[in-house]
Specification:
The protein is of the alpha+beta class and 87 residues long. 18% of the residues lie in helices and 23% in strands. Strands 1-4 form a two-stranded antiparallel sheet. A two-stranded antiparallel ribbon has the order 2-3. The chain binds iron/sulfur cluster (SF4) (2 copies).
């Protein structure tokens, strides 16, 4: 059973929500890591449509350990993997 975050990664996922198209690939990929199922509700990041527009808020939850899998699969540049400490 997953018991919470272990922040051991030397990387950091940077969020550029302005590039998000709401495809939810990131949530699916993250949930696959933790639950071995495709369940966005079990992912460590939140993607929410803003007021019915084609604009999305993207945020990482405190349980995210910045493994980078979601950033690797986000082809729109909304999640970018950088080194820890980079802005
Ligand atoms: S952050 Fe990237 S992968 Fe996730 S919903 Fe937005 S565009 Fe898709
Ligand atoms: S960095 Fe890893 S743990 Fe964090 S949201 Fe992305 S896939 Fe999930």
């Amino acid at each position: 059973m997953w018991r919470g975050a272990m922040r051991t990664s030397k990387f950091q996922v940077q969020v550029h929500a302005e590039n998000c198209v709401g495809c939810l690939v990131c949530q699916v990929r993250c949930s696959l890591r933790f639950t071995r199922s495709f369940n966005p509700l079990e992912s460590r990041l939140v993607v929410q449509r803003v007021d019915g527009q084609r604009i999305f808020d993207v945020s990482l939850t405190p349980e995210c350990d910045h493994c980078g899998l979601c950033a690797r699969d986000c082809v729109y540049g909304a999640l970018v993997l950088g080194k820890r400490g980079e802005s």
